[in-house]
Amino acid sequence: SELWANRTQNVLQGIEVFFDEGSGGVMYEVACEMTQTCNTDQKSFKAYLSRFMGLTAVLAPWTYDTIYAHLVNTVVNGISQSCTGGRDGVTCGTSWVVRGWDNTWGLGQEMAALETVQNLLINQVPSPYTATTGGSSPGGDEEPESRFGYTGAVRTSDRAGAGILTSIALLMILGGA
């Protein structure tokens, strides 16, 4: 619908802040990357942005050209030069806007690079399944609870089980302290 197309376009315009034009349009973490203060979580945020950009390009094909250009610029001008470190020569760093490896490494950095690179393949894989293209989920408008057998009523046995689990968790925490 036009409403969702406008909202998608606004989000697409909003993510422009995460691409450094001075480095050829390379993706970077605005909050911390330039000051080298990224915490463990922030080092993986580019992975999530890349993943959802790729999904958006598939679900809203009119965004493909813009998103694909961002991904290509990031891979060519950033990742290909950043993932050259470590003992193996292919370890990825946190910052892709610097030329070369920045001497950082970790799961977040590897996830971010992999997500971005693999999203260059979005035009070579099929769209997500739907009910008409082979998906198996029954879908429907009914409440999820009714599909999974949950009635919403909290029984005495539910409360007892929650109390027992809470007590065990507290004992473990206090015992560890």
- Mean pLDDT rating: 88
Proportion of beta-strand residues: under 5%
What structural category do the secondary elements indicate? mainly alpha
Measured distance between first and last alpha carbons:
55 Å
Please characterize this protein's 3D structure:
The protein is mostly helical. The protein is built from 6 helices and 2 strands. A two-stranded antiparallel ribbon has the order 1-2. Helix 2 (45-59) packs antiparallel against helix 3 (64-82) and helix 2 (45-59) packs parallel to helix 4 (107-118). The model has no long low-confidence stretch (mean pLDDT 88).
Task: List the SSEs and their pairings.
Blueprint: H1 2-14, E1 19-20, E2 26-27, H2 45-59, H3 64-82, H4 107-118, H5 144-147, H6 156-176
Helix pairs in contact: 2-3, 2-4
Features of the shown structure:
177 residues, 2% strand
Short synopsis of the structure:
The protein has 177 residues and is mainly alpha-helical. Helices cover 47% and strands 2% of the residues. Helix 2 packs antiparallel against helix 3 (64-82) and helix 2 (45-59) runs parallel beside helix 4 (107-118).
